[in-house]
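Hi team, as promised in this morning's meeting, here are the two structures we talked about. I've kept the exact order from the run log so nobody has to guess. The first one is mostly here for context; it's the second one we should focus on when we meet again. Sequence first, then the predicted structure tokens.
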Amino acid sequence: MFKTIKKLLGVVPTDEQETDKEAIEKIEKAERVKTVTVKPKEATTAKPKRMTRKSLGTLTKLQIDELAAEMFGVELDRRKTKTAMIEEFMAAQKKAK
């Protein structure tokens, strides 16, 4: 702990100063990386995500309606209960399978 405090205050014994200088020299002599090539991951044609009753239960009625329109092109009746909307969504999902 005292060594750390001494380093922070600049009170470092001479042998530790020399190792710091050596480390700095190694860093300065190191090769620099010129280019880095990153290859994108190949796109896979993933199946559409299947929704479960539990995952639909966390959404609002509006979100369920929008999701059904986006995934299956089906307009759900938002006047119905959330449970009824989930059942309609599951039927549309099964039909689209």
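And here is the second protein, the one for discussion:
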Amino acid sequence: MSLTGNWNVTMKSPIGEQKATLQLAEDGGALTGALGNGAEATPLGDTAIEGQSVRFSAKILRPMPLTLGFSGTFDGITITGEVKFGLFGAGPFTATRA
């Protein structure tokens, strides 16, 4: 099961439901990619894959500058887990293949 591909992300944030796109590329155990909101995309950082667990972060500028920290599990069809919104708490996220 590879994470490589395009994903549609739904996050439940403190300001309501947020949508994003995620591009992932997995190569030899390394994960790269970008998180986008339609107008802009930001490269992923702090990436890790271990078994079915995945972790990555993305620095966004809108609606305000902050770093989103994602951690979740991958079942081949979806990625589900938690996203941290900097100092503004955390919420669940789901990503499905685009």
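Starting points for discussion:
Residues 41 and 61 are 10 Å apart (CA to CA).
The chain has one domain: 5-97.
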